[in-house]
């Protein structure tokens, strides 16, 4: 999942948010990558549970819909914190390589 060099080198100059984020420490980059994976997993789990029926004596209603989204958000965060499915590792590696390329250009 490599980003083309011309895009990687030009993106930070055109986007101030990328320039500010490019100065992060490896720990902050890893945390951002883990948060990204958490959001991805939350979206994936939401699609998985979209077709699950909640009818029954204690199921259904607007309250369960709201709490289900909160539960899935926590599932995603816990899965990502426990090692996830590998997305955070790839994202962190790409962010650090972009940061290094940006630092090389500025020097």
Molecular structure report:
- It is a single chain.
- This protein is mainly α and 107 residues long.
- The chain has helices at 5-14, 16-21, 26-49, 61-81, 87-106.
- Helices cover 76% and strands 0% of the residues.
- The longest helix has 24 residues, at 26-49.
> What portion of the residues fall into strands of 2 or more residues?
under 5%
Number of helices: 5
Extended strand count:
0
Report the oligomer. Answer: single chain
What is the mean pLDDT?
A: 78
What level of helicity do the residues show?
Answer: over 70%
Provide the succession of SSEs.
HHHHH
CA-based shape: rod-shaped
Indicate the structural class: mainly alpha
Q: Compute the CA-based radius of gyration.
A: 19 Å
Q: How far apart are the termini?
A: 26 Å
For the report, how would you describe the main beta sheet? none
User: Which residues sit in consecutive blocks of at least 5 with pLDDT less than 50?
Assistant: 5-22
Secondary structure layout plus pairing:
Layout: H1 5-14, H2 16-21, H3 26-49, H4 61-81, H5 87-106
Helix pairs in contact: 3-4, 3-5
Summed up, what is this model?
The protein has 107 residues and is mainly alpha-helical.
Keywords, separated by commas or semicolons:
107 residues; mainly alpha; 76% helix; 0% strand; rod-shaped
């Amino acid at each position: 999942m490599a980003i083309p060099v011309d895009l990687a080198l030009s993106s930070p100059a055109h986007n101030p948010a990328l320039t500010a984020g490019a100065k992060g420490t490896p720990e902050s980059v890893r945390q951002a990558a883990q948060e990204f994976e958490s959001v991805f997993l939350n979206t994936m789990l939401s699609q998985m549970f979209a077709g699950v029926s909640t009818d029954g004596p204690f199921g259904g209603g607007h309250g369960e819909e709201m709490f289900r989204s909160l539960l899935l958000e926590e599932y995603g965060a816990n899965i990502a914190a426990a090692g996830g499915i590998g997305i955070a590792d790839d994202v962190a590696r790409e962010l650090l390589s972009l940061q290094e390329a940006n630092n090389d250009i500025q020097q």
